[in-house]
Design a protein that fits this description.
This protein is of the alpha+beta class. The chain is 37% helix and 29% strand. The chain is built from 10 helices and 14 strands. Strands 1, 2, 5, 6 and 7 form a 5-stranded mixed sheet that branches. Strands 10-9-8-11-12 form a 5-stranded mixed sheet. The chain has a two-stranded antiparallel ribbon with strand order 3-4. The longest helix has 24 residues. It is elongated. It starts with a helix and ends with a helix.
């Protein structure tokens, strides 16, 4: 028997039989624990009430699915004051109550679900001998508890479109780990300042030039350093240059014409300033071809 099969046992179970087919391994085992604690009152009990069978799917071995058939017991609670007269043996090391998969099987499905979601993730899981459905993947993702994030030392603040052009909010980014940490409804002073008051410890905050964000930072954390982020500075500079050039467009059109050394044609000065270089045109064409290729792949997968 391969070592991988022995590796899927746990201390409180003994293997009775292993059946191998072309599609899967089926491992039958029974519980050997002497006692079990009542999940309600925590009193230990050795009195077995009855036996029953649980079937769990586990991670594949040697390219084949693995199925555990476990004989577990139902104990009688010895505490007369406990409302639980009988209780099922817990398999906390292996799975959760009422689950049909092992904990590590679910962990792999959760990782696939977060990356690929739905039907695409289910197809990949099937190829990895982890049979499931798209709905199951989505349920696993939705039931995943939200991780508690530590307050970042450097935080970015920007607006976020829940529905572009209609509903906006505020997104908070951990600049050290380069990942979002929270989404706030609206772009209000009160929302940002309250968040900062409940999460002290931010030392540096980057933002755009919005006066609402400035006031929210000042009210929520007066000790933090505020930095105008580079992207918004360059974006604002580009917008200012565009407005200036638009105002003087007619004057630029009247400037003397210059000789284009490459084409041999005369073009206005303002056209020379705005025309793309050949390398930029080639890069633009390459990116357009890549987008078209991804679009065709998505249509083929759909």
């Amino acid at each position: 028997m391969p070592d991988a099969i022995w590796a899927i046992t746990i201390d409180t179970f003994e293997i009775d039989a292993v059946m191998v087919s072309e599609q899967k391994w089926t491992v039958s085992a029974h519980s050997v624990a002497n006692s079990c604690a009542c999940p309600h009152c925590q009193q230990e009990s050795r009195r077995v009430h009855t036996h029953y069978s649980r079937t769990l799917r586990d991670l594949p071995v040697d390219g084949r699915a693995v199925e555990r058939v476990l004989e577990v017991r139902r104990f009688k609670c010895l505490n007369d004051a406990c409302p639980k007269q009988t209780f099922a043996e817990r398999l906390s090391e292996l799975t959760q109550a009422h689950a049909q998969r092992t904990t590590r099987f679910t962990a792999v499905l959760r990782a696939i679900g977060f990356v690929m979601k739905g039907e695409a993730g289910a197809k990949l899981a099937g190829q990895l001998h982890l049979p499931t459905s798209g709905d199951t993947l989505l349920r696993i993702v939705h039931r995943t508890p939200v991780c508690i994030q530590n307050t970042p030392h450097v935080m970015g603040v920007d607006d976020w479109a829940f529905r572009r052009g209609q509903v906006y909010g505020t997104i908070l980014i951990d600049q050290d780990r380069h990942c979002p940490i929270d989404l706030l409804e609206g772009r209000t002073v009160e929302g940002l300042s309250q968040w900062l008051q409940h999460h002290p410890g931010v030392e540096i905050m980057t933002r755009d030039r919005s006066t609402e964000f400035v006031r929210g930072m000042n009210e929520g954390n007066t000790n933090a350093m505020q930095v105008a982020d580079r992207w918004h500075l360059l974006h604002n500079l580009r917008e200012a240059l565009e407005r200036m050039l638009n105002r003087i467009r007619q004057a630029l059109a009247q400037l003397p014409r210059l000789l284009d050394a490459h084409e041999g044609a005369r073009i206005p000065v303002y056209a020379q300033l705005t025309r793309r270089a050949p390398s930029e045109e080639a890069l633009k064409g390459t990116r357009r071809a890549q987008r078209q290729q991804r679009f065709d792949q998505v249509k083929a997968l759909g």
